[in-house]
Each structure stands twice: as structure tokens, then as C-alpha cells.
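Exercise 7b. C-alpha cells:
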């Protein structure tokens, strides 16, 4: 349901409405009350188009060094008035309206939602933490593809999942992903949560796009490089036997001292017949 709705509404708009009457702003205005109908019908429609997204201006390393976090708020749909709080309370239609980028001290939690003119929240309020630990953490959705690649598929932890479950952005052709712009002059250590996913894709003529990585242990390794995918090897972790180990695991290590921001490249070197691995999250720490 989450993947189907409200995409189905958008498909209906494109298919049934004459091109001369199709109007994005008008569609969004009609979609917002439709989201309420979905909820009343027990349909778990995704509200992400109406939800507030948070973005740090500049790099997170810049914010950590300055101890000031410049944050912008926006929604995909651009519908409603964004209102926010900084006191830990959920935003309401009477909360302060967002008008320009916020400049926050580290440690502040922003909660925000967009509201209609009659005071209804268009989506569940979202929050953004500006603690130093939060700024040093990247979730799977915040990772980026390695050069030449694309995280073009979003898959669940297990293929047979029938309820809400973790999902991961992956590149089925290359077991490589990056933590962008890591502040190597700030971070000293790291922990990486890793998920093992089934490889059940028939690539046919696309098999030539697979990117092999050289493995030195039986089941391959997780190789962490500082300074991009051709940078210095910071750590190497042997991967466990897929037949006898859990499908979620954590690796911890130290980072070399560096200057400024640099990408951290995470390469999985398992065989191309083995399961796929994804970085669920990477937490940098200011101590080893």
C-alpha cells in the first residue's frame, strides 16, 4: 500500500484527465483531501510528498566545526504552510511559520509539518536532530552511489515480508556505496550496520554490468576507504558465512586522521553469486 498509494492517484490523473486540464497545483490540492479518504479506508498511503524534508546548508562537517547548523525546510509537493517547533513539542497550525533557513545550535531538535489553510496537517510531523552524534550519522537513504553507479533499487530485508520492514537502496551491479563528505578532522572512529539481502535477480543481457571486487577471504570482505573509492584503506572486515550468520551485523573500526571533508567508500567484495550486502547506516564517532 505504501508503494502504491498515492502513486495510483497520480497515474489516474495522468491517464483520465485531458492534457489540457492537467495542472500540478490543482492535482496536489485535490490529492491532499484524498489522503484523508485513504486513511479512513485503512489504506497506509505514503505521505512523503507532503512531509517536511530537512537539509543542512553546506556540509555537516562545516556545521560541526562552527557549532552552528543552517537548516532548510521544504516539501516535495510545495503545498501548505510549513510550521515548526524547537521546544520538543509537536507542531500545530499555530506554530511558527517557516520563512527562511534556520541557524541552530548543535543539540536542537526541529519538528515540522505543513498545514492547510484550515489548520490540518498534510502529513505526520517529521523531526531533525542537530546533535553532534546525529550530524555524524548517515542512514541508508543518505548514502550515495559510488562513481559510475546508481542506487536504483529499493528492496526489503526479506523477500517474504508481509508487514512493515526495513528497506534498502542498493546497486545490484556493484557492492559499493559511499558516506559523503565525512569530516575526517572531526571523526576518529565508526560503526557500520550492515544488512545481507537475497540475490535473486535474473540479469540476462545486463550481467555484463556486474562489477567484481577482489576478495581475499572465503566469503569476501567489507573494505572501508577514506578519500573515495581509490583512497586509503581505513579498515577491512571479513564477512561471515551467510549460511550460519544473522542477516544483520555491525562492524566497528578507527579512521585515519585527515583534513576537512572526504568521502568514505564502502566496498563489499563477496562473489557475484553470493547475497547482496547493504550499509544500513554508518555512525561516525569523535573518539576511537
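Sequence design result:
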Amino acid at each position: 500500500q505504501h508503494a502504491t498509494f498515492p502513486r495510483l492517484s497520480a497515474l489516474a490523473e495522468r491517464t483520465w484527465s485531458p492534457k489540457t486540464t492537467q495542472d500540478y497545483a490543482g492535482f496536489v490540492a485535490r490529492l491532499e483531501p484524498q489522503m484523508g479518504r485513504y486513511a479512513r479506508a485503512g489504506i497506509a498511503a505514503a505521505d512523503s510528498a507532503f512531509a517536511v524534508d530537512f537539509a543542512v546548508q553546506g556540509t555537516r562537517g562545516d556545521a560541526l566545526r562552527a557549532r552552528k547548523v543552517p537548516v532548510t525546510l521544504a516539501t516535495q509537493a510545495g503545498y501548505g504552510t510549513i510550521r515548526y517547533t524547537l521546544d520538543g513539542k509537536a507542531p500545530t497550525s499555530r506554530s511558527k511559520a517557516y520563512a527562511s533557513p534556520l541557524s541552530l545550535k548543535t543539540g536542537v531538535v526541529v519538528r515540522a509539518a505543513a498545514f492547510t489553510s484550515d489548520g490540518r496537517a498534510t502529513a505526520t510531523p517529521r523531526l531533525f536532530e542537530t546533535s553532534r552524534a546525529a550530524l555524524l550519522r548517515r542512514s541508508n537513504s543518505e548514502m550515495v552511489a559510488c562513481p559510475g553507479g546508481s542506487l536504483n533499487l529499493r528492496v526489503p530485508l526479506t523477500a517474504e515480508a508481509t508487514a512493515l520492514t526495513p528497506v534498502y537502496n542498493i546497486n545490484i551491479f556493484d557492492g559499493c556505496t559511499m558516506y559523503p563528505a565525512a569530516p575526517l578532522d572531526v571523526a576518529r572512529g565508526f560503526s557500520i550496520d550492515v544488512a545481507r539481502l537475497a540475490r535473486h535477480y535474473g540479469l540476462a543481457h545486463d550481467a555484463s554490468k556486474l562489477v567484481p571486487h577482489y576478495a581475499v577471504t572465503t566469503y569476501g570482505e567489507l573494505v572501508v576507504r577514506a578519500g573515495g573509492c581509490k583512497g586509503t584503506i581505513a579498515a577491512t572486515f571479513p564477512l561471515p558465512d551467510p549460511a550460519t550468520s544473522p542477516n544483520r551485523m555491525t562492524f566497528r573500526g578507527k579512521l585515519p586522521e585527515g583534513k576537512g571533508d572526504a568521502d568514505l567508500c564502502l566496498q563489499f567484495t563477496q562473489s557475484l553469486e553470493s547475497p547482496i550486502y547493504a550499509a544500513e547506516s554508518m555512525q561516525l564517532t569523535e573518539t576511537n
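Instructor comment: The first helix runs from residue 7 to 16. The mean pLDDT is 94.
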